[in-house]
Write a structure and sequence with these properties.
Strand content: 5-15%
Radius of gyration: 22 Å
Number of helices: 18
Distance between the termini: 28 Å
Number of strands: 12
Order of helices and strands: HHEHHHEEHEEHHHEEHHHEHHHEHEEHEH
Length: 457
């Protein structure tokens, strides 16, 4: 499958093999298997575009890419399109993207893997943040094809003209999507189109890895919402989905919940200096464990991940995400059907950011809640984090542990939008690389050892 190693739970791999190799395959038996199948095969949102439109998107590409695509075979052109838009192949059908449900009529509809289906070194890892997803570029290109061919526009085509989809590839303005969608609903999720648009603070976020889900009781960067299967459904709040749809699909999302809880952190695939890592564990436990917990089979339950929310004046990372949601936003969600009308608790005024678990941290670059830090080495060296950087497509930096990047002192001038989004500019609103200075309590030798230890988690 294009030399990509698919890191899926064994139960899901079995389902994929059955689907691919046997048209009379049995229905998946476990909740996790069903949940994966719902995400990849069932439509919960209005369609985004057709196969015909996607196949014509290359006609909107800049030169020389457009000329290269024109000369390419359909298969080569499909790979070029997947590359441009940050799409990855599905395990059971590599001609289809993991990030979209593609039905028998060639209609494409986004699913949760759009943000949570990424790759490292070309290896597809469902549940990994998709740090290359170019949603704004994909929407711009497919919208242009539709307009040229007198085809109807969809929700993303129109919505993206009002609400930005992300100013850097791989990041998402999902928090404000949620604010906008919830604004027009009451607690029973009835639609109220007569309401005025909400105040929104647009900013980019880095999606969390799904293998942390099973450890958490509260979700999101500020840990304001208790975990529940209904909460997973909030991005289906498009006007076309009324309260009856959410009730109809609730059983599906119990299975989706089970699937996400089944996702396991991938193991580091390269050599590890175990002696150095052991030294790093000692330093990590002294400086980092109070917030991020201790790891290993020999660790007592009381010493494992503490789910600590670190106050903003202590962590000092970018404040925009924390301040973008006000108490009214959080309480609107907290009193709704998503929390069973308040039976699941909500924190109306969190004071900081959740110190995340670190399982599989080697794979989940970039770092911090806004994705501003490209490698673990840079996370451990706060003063040396790059101002502007651009990643390669599939390269992995084994030395610095994270994205393979080029760095810049400033953003190049006069870039078109699609190319500008290939850079991360930490000077832009909500994208600060500063804060989380705690590693400066380590010596340089200890930082080197901790970097090696983090590979083992």
């Amino acid at each position: 499958m294009h030399n990509r190693i698919l890191m899926l739970p064994a139960s899901v791999i079995a389902v994929c093999i059955l689907i691919a190799g046997n048209s009379a395959a049995k229905e998946p038996q476990t909740a996790a298997e069903r949940g994966y199948q719902f995400l990849t095969q069932k439509v919960y949102l209005p369609a985004d575009f057709t196969q015909e439109v996607f196949d014509a998107a290359w006609t909107q590409w800049p030169e020389p890419l457009r000329s290269e695509a024109e000369k390419a075979t359909p298969e080569e052109r499909r790979k070029m399109a997947f590359s441009r838009y940050g799409l990855t192949p599905r395990p059971d059908d590599p001609t289809k993207p993991l990030q979209y449900v593609v039905d028998a009529n060639g209609v494409w509809t986004m699913n949760c893997f759009a943000c949570h289906g990424g790759q490292v070194e070309g290896k597809v890892i469902p549940g990994l943040p998709n740090s290359r997803f170019a949603l704004q570029t994909l929407t711009d290109d497919t919208r242009a094809v539709k307009l040229l061919n007198n085809k109807p526009l969809g929700r993303m085509d129109v919505g993206s003209l009002i609400v930005p989809l992300g100013s850097s590839n791989g990041t998402t303005n999902a928090v404000m999507f949620g604010v906008a969608l919830m604004n027009f609903r009451d607690v029973e999720l009835n639609v109220h189109k007569d309401r005025l648009p909400p105040k929104m603070t647009h900013h980019d976020m880095d999606a969390p890895p799904w293998w942390h889900f099973k450890k958490k009781e509260f979700l999101y960067a500020d840990a304001f919402a208790a975990k529940g299967h209904r909460g997973l459904m909030q991005f289906m709040l498009v006007p076309q989905n009324g309260p009856e749809k959410f009730k109809e699909w609730e059983a599906d999302f119990r299975d989706v919940f089970a699937y996400i809880e089944s996702v396991q952190a991938p193991k580091y695939p390269h050599a590890i200096d175990q002696k150095l890592a052991a030294q790093g564990r000692i330093a990590f436990n002294r400086v980092c464990a109070d917030c991020h917990g201790k790891y290993g089979d020999d660790v007592a339950a009381a010493d494992r991940w503490p789910a600590r929310v670190v106050p903003l004046d202590e962590v000092k990372t970018d404040p925009v995400r924390l301040n973008a949601l006000n108490a009214q936003n959080r309480n609107s969600y907290g009193g709704s059907w998503f929390t069973d009308f308040g039976k699941l608790p909500t924190v109306a005024e969190p004071k900081g950011y959740l110190a995340q678990p670190l399982d599989g941290i080697w794979a989940s670059a970039p770092y911090l809640h806004n994705g501003s830090v490209p490698t673990l080495w840079h996370l451990l060296h706060p003063s040396q984090r790059p101002v502007v950087w651009k990643r390669s497509e599939t390269g992995y930096d084994q030395k610095q542990v994270g994205l393979e990047i080029k760095t810049f002192k400033s953003l190049p001038r006069d870039l078109p939008g699609w190319e500008r989004r290939e850079y991360f500019n930490s000077l832009e609103f909500g994208k600060s690389r500063t804060g989380h200075d705690f590693p400066d309590e380590l010596t340089e030798e200890e930082k080197t050892a901790v970097l090696e230890y983090l590979k083992t988690l």
